[in-house]
Amino acid sequence: MLDIAFTTGVMHLTVGNGLMWLIAFFFIYLAIRKNYEPLLLIPIGFGILIVNLPLTFLMEQGRGLLWRFYHYGLEWEVIPPLIFLGLGALTDFGPMIANPKTLILGAGAQFGVYIAFFGALILGFNVQEACSIGIIGGADGPTTIYTTVRLSPHLLGATAIAAYSYMSLVPIIQPPIMRLLTTEKERKIVMKQLRPVSKREKILFPLVTVVVICLIVPAAAPLMAMFMLGNLFKECGVVRRLSDAAANELMNIVTIFLGVSVGATMSAEHFLKLQVICVFVMGIVAFAFSTAAGILLAKFMNFFSTEKINPLIGSAGVSAVPMAARVSQLMGSKANPKNFLLMHAMGPNVAGVIGTVVAAGVFIALAG
Amino acid sequence: MIDWGLAVKICVFGLSAVFASLALLIGAIYAFEKILQIIEKRLN
How many structural domains does chain A have? Predict the structure, then answer.
């Protein structure tokens, strides 16, 4: 009788499993009740729940269903580039092309990545782990996952959850930093309307960008190439079906596998560690410094520029598209109801994605 | 044991690559804006 009982999962439950169930339910609650990144938190939460059911062997190497998703989707580096294909098909680089100076703000916001990188080293992580933790500051989920799988796969659950959690918390994390680093007068700066961008420029942009970035950082090619291919689909106007498929069906399908695979890496024995708390702490440090660096760089640029930049758009350089740009718009319109910063903030916002991919490429090339 | 030399190299090269690639893109955007303007003028 006892032997039969031991063939069930009930007899093998641990306190760790119970704690992970609570975390899973919490994520599902946040997704359904609070609408925090529901497209990801529901599959991640469900993945956590089922991987912590004893004797299911869902992550057993070579046999488990979730292991297959993880192995062929993430370890084979298929899913993050496909997500980037969809992101490219959804991204409008027009505001950035209209005001190319804002690209610098996207670069400035990468400072937080390196501050968190050194912070993680000081906390005792090795170089590869520190790279995976630092890249959280780029506020770009697929890039964080891609870098972590390449450099320190054992941290995948923690870095992915930290990145997506903080991305959904951008409206809470950024405003106090933005208020602290800007004056009322600066927040009221009205930026002049952006020039219209021609279709030719929009078509040329992905072609030029993929050549420039991949020549400088070849390790960034998988993400950058797919990102720009998706954008070319969108802008060329002759492959509407491919553009729609990349932005909708394909993106939705890979999001399911991405979420479940990430959740599946979070078994109790891998996740309930002090290391994971450190990852979350350094993640928020990275976010905060990236936000601050973008704002301070915008203020610095104002010393040399005749056309003043509203420093609030600097914080949008952390990526988290389009949430960070919306926060800039909200803060700007609070200071001056006639201020419309959204399109201006989209420039650093999408530049931040490119900047983060470059930073990730360097991490992979030098630490991989 | 942390390899601080490698860490500094990653940081310096990483930030340089980020700024250099985005600066090159700025240059390229301004350049192809001008070139397209010239081409359109000639076509007109």
Answer: 1
